[in-house]
């Protein structure tokens, strides 16, 4: 069972805060609560549950007091904890004997809070809002180097923010020490760090093989990731920012090479210029966020022979992109197929009404030149019967008979 915090904005009494079960449950279900989700959400009606309720004009103190009551009540039976207030966590003096999963936002005292709620049996940890220069605290708050061991942790997510220079200096003066962080059982690693460096990567002791790794980072951080002595067994995902793509492409190839034989997914998300320089032959999935032409998309597919899934969020269509294709007649040859294993293609065209026919031409051209395609998603208006075109081409392109069409979704 899960419980959530809810509130009603009362114009007379201020915010009224209450606790409710996350789903319908029989009488007595409160004794079976195993997870607290302490994010705040609005509700239409206010009701009181088990006497844990507050009415106050001071929103922060209300939330902190409510969190403290919940922690004191359920700490010993909790398996999961998320969005908890750090001050309430420390003041509760609770003992988290059964805790398995934690999702917490960093605040001024979250270093101490982390040490309080990270027992030996913790299996999943996500820390959000870490300052760019954050260094893991030594056990017991000591100022000397040491080590922190998570013997059972299987999933770790670290999301850093871009702190201002002044805040960074203040934080470094208070928490300047670092410890080795040992993660012998880690399977899933999620990192978001857009700063110049990631101190965690300097002290992390990771296992030789992880199941999956998902990294959103600058070129400087990717360089540290590329030096990690680990291999990836199942899935690698790298996301690049717009202003860092050219510098990071060689590092992406090095990171992708960490995959073991049989790794099913090697994915790259590009939030910048089209990756004209990428030559990562092992790449299986690619997502490009910025504008590119149909011809650039075709050249991209040709350069990546192992590509299995491609998502293009902004394909630019003009009046002179391609002539409108017609289905090849009997005995006529279809356009030369690309040498690709691409099976899943999702395209969002940036089009206007005058460019409707060029957009259809671009769609037809892509379909005829990708022989292994199984699924095609796009924002082509439903008034154009694309299935009719496919039906007329199945003799020259038999693979189109099995093609599945879908609507493009963000």
UniProtKB/TrEMBL annotation:
It comes from Coemansia javaensis. This is Uncharacterized protein.
């Amino acid at each position: 069972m899960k419980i959530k915090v809810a509130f009603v904005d009362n114009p007379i009494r201020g915010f009224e805060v209450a606790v409710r079960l996350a789903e319908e449950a029989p009488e007595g279900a409160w004794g079976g609560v195993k997870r607290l989700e302490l994010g705040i959400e609005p509700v239409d009606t206010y009701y009181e549950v088990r006497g844990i309720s507050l009415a106050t004009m001071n929103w922060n103190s209300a939330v902190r007091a409510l969190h403290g009551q919940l922690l004191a009540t359920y700490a010993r039976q909790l398996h999961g904890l998320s969005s908890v207030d750090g001050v309430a966590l420390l003041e509760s003096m609770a003992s988290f004997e059964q805790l398995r999963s934690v999702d917490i936002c960093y605040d001024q005292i979250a270093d101490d809070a982390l040490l309080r709620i990270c027992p030996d049996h913790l299996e999943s940890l996500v820390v959000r809002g870490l300052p760019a220069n954050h260094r893991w605290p030594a056990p017991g708050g000591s100022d000397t180097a040491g080590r922190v061991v998570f013997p059972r942790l299987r999933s770790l997510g670290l999301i850093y923010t871009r702190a201002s220079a002044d805040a960074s200096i203040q934080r470094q003066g208070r928490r300047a020490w670092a410890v080795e962080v040992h993660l012998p059982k880690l399977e899933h690693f999620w990192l978001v760090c857009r700063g110049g460096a990631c101190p965690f990567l300097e002290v992390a002791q990771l296992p030789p093989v992880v199941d999956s790794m998902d990294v959103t980072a600058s070129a400087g951080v990717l360089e540290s990731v590329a030096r990690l002595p680990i291999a990836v067994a199942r899935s690698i995902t790298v996301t690049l920012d717009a202003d860092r793509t050219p510098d990071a492409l060689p590092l992406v190839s090095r990171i992708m090479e960490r995959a073991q034989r049989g790794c099913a997914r090697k994915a790259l998300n590009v939030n910048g210029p089209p990756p004209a320089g990428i030559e990562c032959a092992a790449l299986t999935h690619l997502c490009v966020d910025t504008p590119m032409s149909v011809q650039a998309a075709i050249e991209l597919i040709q350069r990546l022979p192992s590509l299995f899934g491609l998502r293009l969020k902004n394909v630019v269509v003009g009046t002179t992109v391609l002539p409108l294709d017609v289905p090849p007649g009997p005995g006529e040859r279809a356009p030369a197929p690309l040498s690709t294993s691409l099976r899943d293609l999702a395209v969002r065209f940036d089009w206007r009404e005058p460019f409707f026919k060029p957009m259809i031409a671009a769609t037809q051209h892509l379909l005829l030149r990708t022989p292994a395609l199984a699924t095609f998603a796009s924002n082509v208006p439903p008034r154009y019967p694309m299935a009719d075109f496919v039906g007329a081409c199945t003799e020259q392109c038999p693979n189109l008979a099995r093609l599945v069409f879908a609507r493009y979704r963000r």
